[in-house]
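Structure request: YbbR-like protein, Eubacterium ramulus.
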Amino acid sequence: MLRKLTKRITNNFGLKVLAVVFAIVIWLVVVNIEDPEKTKGFTIPVTIENSDYLTDMGKTYDILNNSDKISFTVTGKRSIIEELSDSDFTAVANMENVNDELTTVPVSVAASRYSGQIEINKRDATLKISVENLKTEKYAVKVVTKGTPAAYCYVETATADPKKVTITGPESVLSQIATVEAIVDVSGVGEDMATNSKVVLLDETGNEISQDRLTLNRTSVAVDVKITMGKSVPLKFTTNGTPADGYRYEKAECSVSSVKLVGSSEALAGISELEISGSQMSIAGATSDVTAGVDLTKFLPDGVELASDQQKQINVTLVIEGKTAKAFAVPVKNITVKNLPSNLSMQFNADTVTVNILGFAEDFADINPESITGTIDASGFNTGVLAAEVKLDGNYSVSETIYTAVTVTEKSSSGNSGSDSNSEGANSSSQ
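Returned structure:
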């Protein structure tokens, strides 16, 4: 029996082996036709491990070029590849593997399924980072109120608890922090309030700084707001007296434009401004600015006081403006010569006469030199080059006496040695 079985197996053994091999090949061909290899791309986030490795060195890092996401391809049987999704893979960057230059960290990618049946192809699998020193600073918290409290109410004090917060982060970010604020809305508030307010970091231009790379020991603070019955009113400065001739009062300058007052609602309702007047506001005979120290409490009406945070003493400058001189070139045709002896003739040595008129800035805008007229009294003139005094018509004020150069000659017997169309004196002398 055994011999017959052995004979059957060994009979045509080569052909039987060939048939088996051929069957395997056919099976592989069929499998590859039905389930060929396929390559598919995936993009997943990179998980950071052991980030304390840099922190323990007093360093912090920032991820560059969005390298915390990695793209790679996976090759395998189509039936397997089509089952895979992003969630089947993990990408890990271990900070302990950072390079010596502290610029890159290798990223490893692993599959949670079919790891032995697929090939993961990743090119530049590195996390690119920028490393800088870690710093810790304390910052005072400034409470900022927004909105308007209820009628005749104002914020007397607003304080934070704690008064300071500790911030840890990159030096480059901490150096941008100008103020730390806690903002509280007091719109319509008529009594004391206690609340919690988020801490906001601002740079020098008032822009908010992201806290993504920072660690704060407190992200919010308790804020206590004290509300007092009161109102803010503008200051009104009333002067007395008149400045010296050629000067005028321009304005009052003060670092404080309004003051906070407290009192009963009835007393506050009757005051819309705080007027500062009296001897301290005198500008009589002034030729320059007048500076006065003012005690605000002396000008408060009955039943009204200054708020506790309002300064009592202020300095006021009463600005006095003096006239200035501006030069105008007046054509000589506008100058009339009077009382020139009939035997003399006069010529101007220039086409215009320069006059320096006194006035305030706005006065000069309406002055047209073509419209300015004047006269010369030539009654005492002799021959030669003279400095003739010009007197302007109208109400002009001048900074100095006006002179212009003229040439006076004696007329010939024919009376044609000179001409002066503006000379009234020559005509009157010949009558």
